[in-house]
Amino acid sequence: GMDDVIKALINRIHPQPVKNLSPQSQKLEFSPDIEETLIELSHFKINVIAAKLTEVLDELAKTPPSTEELAAVFAHSQLTLLDLIGKCLSSHWAYIKESNKKNAKALTQEELVKLSEKEEEIFPPPLDEGTATSISTLAWQFLVKPNQTPEFKQKAGIVLYQISASNFEQTVTFLYNHINNPVGSTDDDNTVPFLLLEHLNLNIKRLGDLIERFNRCASNFKKNVQLVFARTFRTAIWNWIEHYPMEFVALYHHRIRLSGKPKLLFDTLEKWGGKKRDFWPLQTMLLLLCPKLLLHLSEVNSDSKNKKQQSKHQKKLDFLSKLHKVLFAQGKHKHTYVAIICYLDMVKAWTYLKETDKSGKKTEKSGLLNIVPGIEGELEAQLFNLEQPLKNPDGRIDKQLMVDGLTYFFFISPRKTVNSLFKEFVKPKLPHLFKVILVKCLLNITRVGKAHLLWNFSFNDIYSALSSTFRGLLQGEYQHLQGLISQKASEKDAKRPSKQQKEVYDEELLIQLFELYHTEPKLALYTKPGEELKKNIEELKSLFVPMTFCAIQSAYLGVAEAASKALLSLHKTSNIKSWYDSANNFAVFLHINCAVMNLIADFLIEQRESRDHIFHVTELAESLLYLRYEYLSQELTMDNTLLCDLRNESLSKLETALLVNMSSVEPKICSKCVRCISLLCDETDIYSVASNPIAANYRTYKELAISGILITGTEAQQKSIRTLLRRIDNPTQGNSQAWHEIYLRWKSKTEEVVIIKFENEQTPSELLARQPLLSKTESKRKLLSSNAPKNVLQDKRALEILMEWKNYTAFLCALSGVAFSSKSSRSKTDKVASIEDFLREMLFDLLNRDTAKVRETSKQMIGSYLSPVTFSTLFSLLHGEASKMVTDQSTVSNPAFFADQAISLIKYILEMDHADADLSQVTNFEDLIRFLTKRVQHEWVTNYKISGLIQAMMEKKKLIPFRNEFRFRQDFVEYISGWINEAVTKAQQNEDITLSIDPHDKNRKVTLPKLLEQYLRSISLLLRGLPLQGEDDDAKSKIFSKYFTFFTNLLATMRKDTTGLYITTNLSEITVSALSFLVSANMHHGLTNLKMMGYHEDLETRCAFLKVLTSILNQGNEVDVIDTTTRDKYYKLLQLLLEPGMDLVLALCDVIQITEAEEVAQVLVNVFEAREKTIDLLNLVIEQEVAKTETSNTLFRRNSMTTKLLAAYSKLIGQEYLKLTIAPVVTQLVAENLSFELDPNRAAPGENLQNNMKNVMRHSTLFFQSIQKSIANCPRALREVCLFLKSSVQKRFPGHEHVAIASFFFLRFLCPAIV
To answer: How far is it, in rounded angstroms, from Cα 1136 to Cα 1140?
Structure first.
C-alpha cells in the first residue's frame, strides 16, 4: 500500500547499507521530486515517513566514519535527513491548520482575529511514542554535540520545536529529569538540559507549568546554570509570544491568565548572587508576563502615600527605577547596553498591543503604554548614535540590536520612522553600517512586520520614500564594485600584485539589499505614478543593469547569489506587470529584458575560466528564459513588429554565448546551454519576429534541445551536440560570431597544447615506417595513454587543456558550415579568420606535429565532425598541396608524412555516414589520390593505408563525383597488383614484413598475410563491375590476359606455399572473388582464358576455375531480368555451359567439393531452367551417376552433385505439389499434439510406447494415403525425371528401378519436407 510506496521512495535515496558507504560515494541527496512527494505525503502518513527517515538517520549516526572524508559525507547526509524530517513535521502541522480554515478571504477583520485565536489552539496529533522518542533523542544529540555547526543546531532545533508541539512531555523529558534531581555539581553538563528551552513549543499553559517547576528549584541553581537559564528562558518566553501572539494579547486583555506566578521567579532571580545585570533581561520578561502588576508598577509613584503597596513591590519598583536611571545616565553607563536590551523587549512587546487591537478596538490600559513613550526618545538616541554606534560589552558594534530597535520603532510609529530615521540612514555621507541596518530592518518588516502594522498603513509610504534612493544606492555600489573588479583583473593580467593596500569590500549591504528586493519586489520596481515611458525605462535600467552585473560577476559570490535570486523574483510574470502600465508594459519588458540578457550573453562570451561560475550564469540564463517564456505565453498584447532589431540583436548574442559554451568540457554547462536553446525554440513557437536568428536553424536547434538533454556522459553528450551542429548551414550573426569566438579560444589553447609532452611519442619518420592506417574503430582510442608520466599527464591542468582544445577543435569543425557560408559576406579587408585559415592550420601544421595526441585528435575531429559544406575547401587545400609534392615544391616540412596523414584523414571522412550530396562539391578527387600515391607508394605502411582508403572509396563510390571512374580504378588495380607482387617476392625471399599497427601497443602487428588480404580486398572491390580501359579491343584483351595471368599465378603460389603464411587466412577466396569480378566485367575478352583454365591438367587449377565460374554464375544467375548490357556480357558464358554434350558442366560435377555442391546446384538449376534445358541436364547427370554406382543398394543415396541437382530441381517446381499433398496431414498432426517417441531411453516418464507406435503407424498411413491420392497432381517434369530414372537403372540394375525412384522421390523430395 501507501506505506510500501513511502519506504520505496526513501530507499531510492538511501539504497545501500550505511556500512558500505565510502568517500567515493555520492553524498546523500534528495531529488526535489522525491522530497516534494514525501512532504506532500506527510499530510496523511507522517508516522510512517518520520519513522523511516529517523531509522536511516539513526543508522548513519551510529556508524563511526573511518576517515575525515567519510566523516564529511556522513555529516552532509545526516543534515539532509534532519532537514527533511523537520520539513515533513512542519508541513503536516500546517496542513492540519489549513484544513480548519473555511473561506477565510470572505471573513471580516474581527472574524479573522477570532480565526487566528482558534488557529493557535490547533496542535498536531501525537506521533507514535517510539517514533517521537527516537526523533527527539536524535535531535537533542545533534543539538548538544560538542563543536556542532550552527546549521546543524538550527535544523535540530526546528525538529525539537515540531516534536514538542505534538509530543511535549516526551520532548521535555531531558529537562524535567535534570531539574527534578538535586543539582550539586558545577560541571558544564548541568547547563546542557537548559538549552532545550530555546527550542520548545510553548503555549500559555506549558509556559505556566515550566514557571511553576522553576519556582520550586531555581533557588538551588548554581552560578553557571543561572547564566544559561537566564538566557534560554528569556528566549523561550519570546518564542511563546511570537508563535502565540493572540494568547499574549488575551493575557493583557485579562481574558486568560498565566499560571506559575512569574513574579515569584522574578524575586528568586533578584536573590541570586553574581552580576545582577546578567539577569535583567529575563526579569524584564517576567514582569511582562504580569500585566496587572506591570500596570500597577508604572502608576505607583515613589513618593506615593500608599506606602504599603510601595513596600510590597519595592524590589520590582527599584528594578524599573534602576533601568530608567541607567538609560538616562549622564555619559556612558557601564550597564547601558543591558538596559537598552530590557527596554527594547518592552518596546517589542508593545508592538503586539499598541493603542488598538487587531479588531480595531481601543485596548485596555497597560503598563507598557505608560513606560514606553517615556523612554522612546532616549532609547532612540542611545541606539542610533551616528557618531558612536552602539557596541556590546565585547566592544563590537551590535548591528542586530540596532536592526531590532529600528524595526520596533517602525512598528510603533511607521510614518514618523520613515520620515525621520529611514531618511537619515540613507544619506550618502553616512557609513555603510546604517544603510545595512536600514535594509535589514526593512527585511524584518517585509517578512514578519505586516502583522504588527496599523491596519490603515500603506506600504506605498515606504516605496515612495526609499525606492528611488535605494536604486541610487545600488548604482553607487555597482560602480564601486566595477572599479574593484577591474583593478583585480588588471593585477591578474599584469601578473603582479598592486603595491597599494587592497580594499576589503563589505558585501553585506548588497547581499541584504538584494535579499530585500527578492522579498519585497515592489520596493525595487516602484516609480512615480504617471512617469513618462522613456524615463521609466531609464529608472528600471538603473536597477536591472547593476543587479545583473552583480549576479554574473565572480569576485564576490555571496553578492552574485543574492542578486540572482532578486533578479529572478523581479522577472516573475506578476512582478513584470508592475514594471509599467499595461498599455506599454510589453515595450518596457523588451527594453529591460534585452539589456539583462545582453549582459549575461556578453559575460558568457568573454568568460573563459571558472567553470563553476559559468554554470551559475547559464543556470541563471535558463531560469530567466523560462520566466520570459511564461510572461510571453500570458501576454495578450504582443506586437511582433515591436523593437525587432533590439530583440534580434539580443537573440544573436544569446545564440553566440550558448553555442560557445556548448564546447565546454563541463557536461552540466552544456546541458544548461542546450536547455536555453530549447526555451528559445519554445519562445519562437509563440512569438517570432522577422529575421529571428533562432528560427533560421529552428529544426536543428529543436532536435538539439531533445537529444542534448536526454544523453548522459561527457563524450556521448558532446558527440550528439557536434553531430547536430554539423547540420547548421544557415549563417546568422550569432552562429558566425560563435565560430569566430571559438576560433580565438582555439588559437590560444593550441599554443598551450602543442608544448605538452607525452610519453612514447614517435616522430613522423618513425610513424611513417611503423604505423599503418587504422580503421575508424581502431582510431577512436583514448587520447591519454595509461602509462603517462606522472609529472606531466597526471597534472590536472594539462588534461584540461587537452580536453578543452579537443572540444574547441570539434566545434570549429561542426560549425564550419556557417563560417563557410558567411565568408562571401566579408569584405576583402576583413581580418576575421576564415574557414580556410582554420583548415590550413589543421592540415599543414597540427596534422604534421610530432605530438601524437594533437595529430590524432586533429584527424579525428576533422574526419568525424567537419561540416559537409566545407568538404570542397578541405579537398581543394589537400589537392593543392599534393600537386606541389609531385613536383617537389611542397610547403610542408615533411611531405611524405603529410601525405601519410592526408590519406588517413580522407579514409576517416569516407568512413563516416554521408548524405547523397555531402561529397558532391568535391572536385579533382582522382588527381588528389593519385598525387598522394605517387608521392609515397614505395612505403610499405603507406601502401597499406592507401589500399584501405581504396576500400573506403569503393564502398562510397556512388557518392564520389568521379570524372573518369573506370580509368582511376584501373590505374589503382595496376598499383596494387604491383604491391602484391613485391610483397610475394619478399616472402619468397624469406624477408620479414611486419608492420606495427599501434605504437602504444607493441602486440598489435600487421603480418604478410594481413597485408596481402588488405591489398586483395582493395583490388577485388576495384575490379567489381570494371570494364577494362584501352585504345581498342586488342589492347583490352592484352590487359585482361595480364591480370588473369596475375591472379592465376597468385593462386598457384598460394597452393605451393610451404611456409604456412597463407593457411590461416582466406586469401585464396578473395583472389577467386577478384578473378571472378575481372572475368564477369570483361566476359568478351576473358572467356577463352577461363575455358582453358577449366580444362587445365592440374586438378587444383580446375578447382579454382570452378570456384570462379560459380562466383560468376552467382553474379549473373538472374540474366533474364537484368539489363540488356549485362545479359549480353553473360551470353558467351551461357553458350559455353549450354553447348551440346555439356562437357563443362559434367566436368564441374566431377570436381566440385560436396560443401559447395548445393550452392552450385542451385545456380545451375536456375540458369538451365531459364533456358528450358534442365531436363536435359538432369538426364545427363543421372546417366553419369548410374554408370558410376557399383551396387544397386547405394543408388542415389550418397551426397553427390547429381542428388543435389535433383533436390534443387524438385524444390523449384514441386512447392505447390508439396502444399497440396503434405500440408493437410502436417496441420492435423500438429493440432493433435501427440507423442511419436519410440526409443525407451528418450521417452518421458510414464509415456506409453505402444500408444506412440500406434500414433506413428496411423499418421504414416495418412501420409501414404495422401501421397497415393496425389498422383494426378504430381508435376509432369517430375514424372519425366522418374521415367528417365527408371529406364537408366533398368538397363544397369534390372529390377531395382523402383528403389531408385523411391530414393529420389521420397528420400530427396517428400521426406525432407515432412521432417
So the answer is: 9
Neighbour count for residue 559 (Cβ, 10 Å): 23
d(CA 180, CA 177): 5
In degrees, rounded to 5, the angle at the alpha carbon of residue 88 between the alpha carbons of residues 87 and 92 is: 115
Round to whole Å and give the CA distance between 839 and 843: 6
Using CA atoms, how far residue 1047 sits from 28, 701, 950, 1035, 1155, in Å, is: 70, 54, 19, 19, 24
DSSP 493-519: HHTS--SSPPP----HHHHHHHHHHHH
Sign for the CA dihedral angle at 573, 577, 582, 586 comes to negative
Cβ contacts of 911 within 8 Å, gap of 6 or more: 775, 776, 863, 952
pLDDT grade, residue 1157 (50/70/90)? confident
Please give the grid coordinates belonging to residue 78. Answer: 545526516
1267 pLDDT higher than 50: yes
| Rg of the chain taking only CA atoms, in angstroms | 47
Q: Distance from first CA to last CA of the chain, Å, rounded?
A: 54
Helices (H), 183-329: 204-217, 223-243, 245-252, 262-271, 280-288, 291-299, 307-312, 314-327
> Is a pLDDT exceeding 90 seen at residue 811?
yes
Instruction: Decide: 275 and 295 in contact? Cβ < 8 Å.
Output: no
Q: Are 71 and 28 spatial neighbours (Cβ–Cβ below 8 Å)?
A: no
Go through 1238-1260 and write b for each residue having 16 or more CB atoms within 10 A of its CB, e for each that does not: eeeeeeeeeeeeeebeebeeebe
pLDDT at 1172: 81
β-bridge partners, 996: 1005
Q: What is the pLDDT of residues 1049-1068, one digit of tens each?
A: 888 888 777 666 655 557 88
Q: Please state the rounded mean pLDDT for residues 1283-1297.
A: 86
Fill in the DSSP letter of residue 996: E
Structure confidence by residue, pLDDT tens digits, 584-594 = 888 899 999 99
E strand map for 963-1053? 995-996, 1005-1006
Model confidence at 161: pLDDT above 60: yes
Separation CA 853–CA 861 (nearest Å): 12
Alpha-carbon distance of 110 to 96, in angstroms, equals 23
- How far is residue 816's CA from residue 340's CA, in Å, rounded to a whole number? 72
Per-residue pLDDT tens digits for 726-746? 888 789 999 999 999 999 999
Is residue 859 within 8 A of residue 908, CB to CB? The reply is: yes
String of DSSP letters for 285-327: HHHHT-HHHHHHHHH--TT-S-HHHHHHTHHHHHHHHHHHHHH
SS3 1189: coil
Q: What counts of helices (H) and strands (E) characterise the chain?
A: 63, 2
Q: Average pLDDT of 943-956?
A: 90
Query: To which residue does cell 504580569 refer?
Result: 290
pLDDT at residue 262 is higher than 70: yes
Q: Give the residue, 1059 or 461, on which the prediction is more confident.
A: 461
Residue 313 and residue 263: Cα distance in Å, rounded? 10
Cβ within 8 Å of residue 715, ≥6 positions away: none
Q: Are 1097 and 1070 in contact (CB under 8 A)?
A: no
d(C-alpha 694, C-alpha 688), whole Å: 9
pTM above 0.85, yes or no: no
C-alpha cell belonging to residue 597: 540578457
Residues 660, 744: contact at Cβ < 8 Å? no
φ, ψ (nearest 5 deg) of residue 318: -60, -40
| Mean pLDDT of the 1259-1288 span | 86
- Asked whether the beta carbons of 182 and 216 are under 8 A apart, the reply is no
From the list 564, 349, 554, the residue with the least C-alpha distance to 452 is 349
**Residues forming a β-bridge with 397:** 391
